[in-house]
Amino acid sequence: MNSIWHEFLAATGARIDQDLVTDFGDPPGELSAACTAPIVSPLTHLRLIAVGGPEAAVFLHNQVTSDIKHLATDAAQHSAWCSAKGRMLASFLVFRSGADYQLQLSADLLTMIVKRLQMFVLRSKVTIVDLSGNREIFGLAGPHAVEALQALGLPVPDGPLNTAVGSAGLVIRLDSARFQIVTSTEDAAALWRRLAAHARPVGTAVWQWLDIQAGIPLITERTREEFVPQMANFERLGGVSFHKGCYPGQEIIARTQYLGKVKRHLYRAHSASPLAAGDTIYSATSPDHPCGMVTNAAPAPAGGYDALAVVQENFVAGGDLALAAPGGPRVDLELLDG
């Protein structure tokens, strides 16, 4: 996190642990507000990479799972970058910013992904730039979020995964009640003050809980190379094109899809005990090997922890799932909507 932005947030009451804004002094109240009130959160768990140059579109199209060539200037899309074995190295929200493409990803993967992407540039006319020093991301959600944007003179994109550019930054509409705002670090403090007049400031964990409710997984260092995209629902999120040309892992991903070999699926999970990305899930009927893994987790407003988890489907109905080891804390699953 940029040191100036870090100091500003701390001065406004943010409690920060290892660059993550844990809360603004009232974690339970902030979680409760996520269900009933407009909230604004600094998304310090995310970072941005800019991919530019005359051949940026072709380069990205040949590397990631989504159809970059047909990404409109006012649109965003989910995507992933995979290993040759079809396992996700990172998940992205990709959108246009002028002539450049911006990739939003987990902060703990930034350095590795930038370095690895640069290895594939070779002689292509492509630039890859880490934007973490001069871009900040806010999340705005809840009832009256649209009105808050309008009151600040910010544009309101028409529909989900549409974008719009205003004088203070770029707005991405995630769904009917959730937006992201990407702004310069220079303008971040002034914009934050204006947003905080219309929405309650909350810690990053509140936004992570909202992502879980929306069924949006995020690949992090602890889950890197654990899943093919279909296990994490990326084909349903529009993050996989089965009609484009080759990209790393494409053959395995396509074969998995067309042969119906996806035996692990994404579920919403709950436990009274703490959950974290990368935690394993076991079934009493198969105690020697884990049958699932947590992708993302956050404290739940009603108590305990909510999560997204990839679980082998033939162990789901048994209802005997446990965290970390057979006989561990109970984990309950529910199907994602749709």
TrEMBL record:
One of its GO terms (biological process) is iron-sulfur cluster assembly. The lineage of its organism: Bacteria, Pseudomonadati, Pseudomonadota, Betaproteobacteria, Candidatus Accumulibacter. InterPro entries: GCVT_N, YgfZ/GCV_T_CS, YgfZ/GcvT. Gene3D superfamilies: 2.40.30.160, 3.30.70.1630, Aminomethyltransferase beta-barrel domains (3.30.70.1400). It comes from Accumulibacter regalis. NCBIfam families: ygfZ_signature. Pfam families: GCV_T. This is Folate-binding protein YgfZ. Residues 42-152 form the GCVT N-terminal domain. It comes from the Bacteria. PANTHER family: TRANSFERASE CAF17, MITOCHONDRIAL-RELATED (PTHR22602:SF0).
